[in-house]
Amino acid sequence: MNDLFSVKDKVIHVSGGSRGIGRAIAEACSEAGACVVVSSRNEDTLKATGLPYEVCDVADTAQVKRAVESIVKRFGRIDVLFNVAGINFRHAAETFPDDKLEEVLNINLRGNFVMARECGRVMVSQRRGKVINIASLHTQHSLAGMVPYGASKGAIGAMTRALAVEWAAYNIQVNAIAPGFIRTDLNAVLWENEAIRNWALARTPAARIGEPRDLVGTAIFLASAASDFMTGQVLYVDGGLTAGSTWPLSVPR
């Protein structure tokens, strides 16, 4: 039973692993005994993790291929991929800039697919592996001003299910984590706005903003043997937000 949730000695690649959610997952897996390699576009933030790393922009297919080949050459295999790399840009749909549309979709959708494809090739040859994508509340629930982001995260849900079906024959499980409102270094200023913070808290039954560490337990579970018969699922780690809302009235007791 002790080994059921173990990631000890697994080779885990965390794409987008130098900051925020990705870094929290990478550090937790490393502390649990996994061999973790992080990748992102920024070498300075990668160095700051203290983990083995590959500089890689997922929007550049050649860089993705080079990074995956390098990991296999260094460590012999890839057991788990966490597909975390992603960006957002808020803007009205009718005037959304073409360059930002291309950037969001190239990273969040195309880049995540290419990373999954390249790691998937390795896993197919191994006849085992796990791919864990990072979805979003937007996979199920839309907010105004983020249409391309929402479209990309909706597609991540569909991609997760499709890859799960296609790769099941190779003993590869593909699932996704959909975080709720999570405080990271990139969005900390947003949660300092009292009106926005109160709006989010009113919609989250757990009545708090999540932290990257709140995703660690689900991440470890999906990377371990405990999830071997789970595939094609999107797990919402959102403090109950997608489950429903509390009443603005007191409940008789």
Task: Describe this structure as you would to a colleague.
This protein has 253 residues and is an alpha/beta fold. It has one domain (11-237): 3-Layer(aba) Sandwich (Rossmann fold), CATH 3.40.50. It has helices at 20-31, 43-49, 61-75, 98-126, 147-167, 188-192, 194-203, 216-223; strands at residues 11-15, 35-40, 53-55, 80-83, 129-134, 172-179, 234-237. Strand 4 (80-83), helix 4 (98-126) and strand 5 form a beta-alpha-beta unit. Helix 3 (61-75) runs parallel beside helix 4 and helix 4 runs parallel beside helix 5 (147-167). The longest helix is centred in the middle third of the chain and has 29 residues, at 98-126.
Give the tags.
7 strands; globular; Rossmann fold; 253 residues; seven-stranded parallel beta sheet; alpha/beta; 42% helix
CATH class: Alpha Beta
Percent helix: 40-55%
Strand line-up in the sheet with most strands: 3-2-1-4-5-6-7
Distance separating the two termini: 41 Å
- Count of individual domains: 1
- How many beta strands in the DSSP annotation? 7
Largest sheet: 7 strands, parallel
Mind telling me the C-alpha Rg? 18 Å
Low-confidence stretches: none
Class per helix and strand makeup: alpha/beta
- Beta strand %: 5-15%
Given the C-alpha coordinates, what overall shape results? Answer: globular
Q: Helix and strand succession?
A: EHEHEHEHEHEHHHE
Summarize the structure in short.
The chain is α/β, with parallel strands linked by helices.
What is the fold's blueprint, element by element?
Blueprint: E1 11-15, H1 20-31, E2 35-40, H2 43-49, E3 53-55, H3 61-75, E4 80-83, H4 98-126, E5 129-134, H5 147-167, E6 172-179, H6 188-192, H7 194-203, H8 216-223, E7 234-237
Parallel strand pairs: 1-2, 1-4, 2-3, 4-5, 5-6, 6-7
